[in-house]
Design a protein that fits this description.
The chain is mainly α. It has one domain. Helices cover 65% and strands 4% of the residues. It has seven helices and two strands. Helix 4 packs antiparallel against helix 5. The longest helix has 20 residues. The model has no long low-confidence stretch (mean pLDDT 85). Keywords: Membrane, Transmembrane, Transmembrane helix. It comes from Azospirillum cavernae. Pfam families: DUF4112.
Length: 144
Amino acid sequence: MNLTRARRRAAAAGFPADRPRPPMAVDFRRLERLRWLARLMDTRWRIPIIRVRIGLDGLASLAPVVGDTLTAFVSLWIVYEATRFDVPKSLILRMLLNVGIDWLFGSVPVIGTIFDVAFKANRMNVNLLHAHLEERLGGRPPDP
């Protein structure tokens, strides 16, 4: 982001561009619900013998396209909730890419189920959201 654009955004927000952003209000209950949902979708149970964690996303992928489409809607809801935290569009696009990859490769029969168990898009998205919020709350500007 160039300096002029940053100044315009800062002026619109009502504070100078050379100062750090004011602290943002974070709804920690919403954040905790997203964390709980991501855990339910990706890592809720552990398969004892091979010690691999699975969630509803991995189980639903046993029904190739239908199960992955239903869980993709839950994943999109997590991304929607992330937009309510006023995160940058680049972060939202990255989260949408994770959901798209999860849906696309997870929809392949048999191999898609293995992929869904290994690729934990919801956990990655919630971790991206947490990292961004920690940077903003810590006073450092987020990485571009």
